[in-house]
Amino acid sequence: xxxxxxxxxxxxxxxxxxxxxxxxxxxxxxxxxxxxxxxxxxxxxxxxxxxxxxxxxxxxxxxxxxxxxxxxxxxxxxxxxxxxxxxxxxxxxxxxxxxxxxxxxxxxxxxxxxxxxxxxxxxxxxxxxxxxxxxxxxxxxxxxxxxxxxxxxxxxxxxxxxxxxxxxxxxxxxxxxxxxxxxxxxxxxxxxxxxxxxxxxxxxxxxxxxxxxxxxxxxxxxxxxxxxxxxxxxxxxxxxxxxxxxxxxxxxxxxxxxxxxxxxxxxxxxxxxxxxxxxxxxxxxxxxxxxx
Length: 292
Description:
Layout: E1 3-4, E2 10-11, E3 13-17, H1 43-55, E4 60-64, H2 74-79, E5 86-91, H3 100-106, E6 108-114, H4 120-127, H5 132-145, E7 150-156, H6 165-172, E8 178-184, H7 191-207, E9 210-213, E10 220-224, E11 227-232, H8 238-242, E12 246-249, E13 254-256, E14 266-267, H9 273-285
Helix pairs in contact: 1-9
């Protein structure tokens, strides 16, 4: 059984925040839209949510945070993913190197790693810690473990790291297991960021020999001289919303139909069986595009 909302958008993906805690202090972080998180979910809670998602034919799960690798039971959580679901994770990469192989062995397919500068001083200014070398080790360990394709998430900050676009493209060039993602800053009050990311995408389009349209969000992948680059534009983007296929779960156990809304959550902490299934159905019925 598939869940489809009133805008005829099937829900095939679930995104679960495992913790609101983080060992960095990135100045742009939205923590998956969590407002004031309480105690994080238990492994048993997460396992039940995964089983229900699989029952509704959701075929993939992405674990996020905060920083999900801060969870001491992260490997056990990956083990709990049903065989029918692909598991991936978004991480800042600072704690990844020692556990990358364990995560792969537990069933994790791939990782997205946040890295907003290749310059140590600038990285520290954005993220609050001098951890760039740990992130680079995490990238290498992930490729070695087969957590591929590794996607590098770069939030483009105008006047801060936007001068590193070419450096990042060079960094991933001819690395077949790494894809670069430039991500628009989420700021509802500043449309200039959207204008900049649109101009960046237009430049990439003009330079690309091959352009691939991905199924999810109709996002484009630009192939530029041995580098694969994607642009993620969630803001003021009707196409992004029109093709949204996911439900989100906050770290304290609330179903969140839309990243940008905080007024339509449903508490599922401790829920089981038929009650949990009905809450999934209700959450999907509350889904509507934020940008129409």
